[in-house]
Amino acid sequence: MHAEIAGAGFAGLVAAIALRQRGWTARVHEIDTELRAFGAGIFIWDNGLRVLQAIGAYDAVADGAYAAPGYRTERNGVCMSFGKVNSEGHFRLLTMSRQHLYSAILAAARRAGVELETNSGAIGATPDGVLHLADGRRLQADLVIGADGVRSAVRESLALPGARKKYIDGIIRVLVPRGPLVGGRWDEVIDFWAFAPRTLRILYTPCGTDSLYMAMMAPVADAAASAIPVDPDVWASCFPDLRPALEAIGTKGRYDVYETTRLERWSAGRVAIVGDSAHAMPPTLAQGAGCAMMNALGLAVAVEGVSRNDLPAALAAWEARERPLTDHTQSSAAHLAATRALAEGMPWDSDVFRAVRHVPTGT
């Protein structure tokens, strides 16, 4: 059995590795000229770490990732919540650059014998398992997977019913040197919120001894705070202790508005849609990559040993099994984005952590 996969992001690569582990051949098509990650830093909670173990990428990810001792929320200088992480009886959370995570998964894909093509952009697919490429090729497969991102060409070509929604806030993601922000509380993940003199948020995240990831939320309506390049004075007016990091940003960063993508169904015939193509969500729970990787692995499990004729039914069963958790996580992330409720503190005992507690299919 053979799969053609559009998109060499986390979901596409995990799906390809997991299929290879189950005896399939898999070819992944990437529109760009090189295989690399976009963005800055990333959180991987317990559920995502389990997937990485299942595909043989965990050791490489853990080697060089950062394990913070705690996660606190501060609003206008007041600590609203604190939770231990990465110690016995608490959630595991590794933080790292997106490129670090991507390199480890890409190496696992190459070890697994996944075929990788760059400069190979998908423009669509048909339910009978044909992937259409921009260079004119029409590739027949037993299974086609659309993992080509929020603006998925594969998804759009199938005219799958769905909706996209944008929110009142967006985010700037940057990696900078930690500089003097080392030791004590600066070794924790800190979710800084301010509502005066303006509404801003910085999710301060060490990614190692020298690297710092900052996810900087600003309202769409705040032109000064959402501007690129970042104006350190605007942000330091709310977070003066972070000025050294803010001044190190320079011209880095891109402002992206929070949004969700929700499809009525995740497949058509022998084409499956996975990752941000199917269920993009705001980053408020740091579960976009986690859900993408869980569903990609679950997809491979669902089609193992299935005949070509039975693949549509297997895809329907995959969605029925995996979707409830993804829908719950997406809805929870969207609620937090719409209400800015995380400013009240991280709800550690809440059901919003259902995905973190979940043992993914195939692990």
Automatic annotation (TrEMBL):
This protein's species is Reyranella soli
Instruction: Give all residue intervals belonging to the FAD-binding domain.
Output: 5-308
Q: Which GO terms describe its molecular function?
A: FAD binding; monooxygenase activity
Cross-referenced Pfam families: FAD_binding_3
Q: Which UniProt keywords apply?
A: Monooxygenase, Oxidoreductase
Question: Would you tell me the protein name for this molecule?
Answer: Monooxygenase
InterPro entries according to UniProt: FAD-bd, FAD-dep_Monooxygenase_BioMet, FAD/NAD-bd_sf
Keyword match Oxidoreductase:
yes
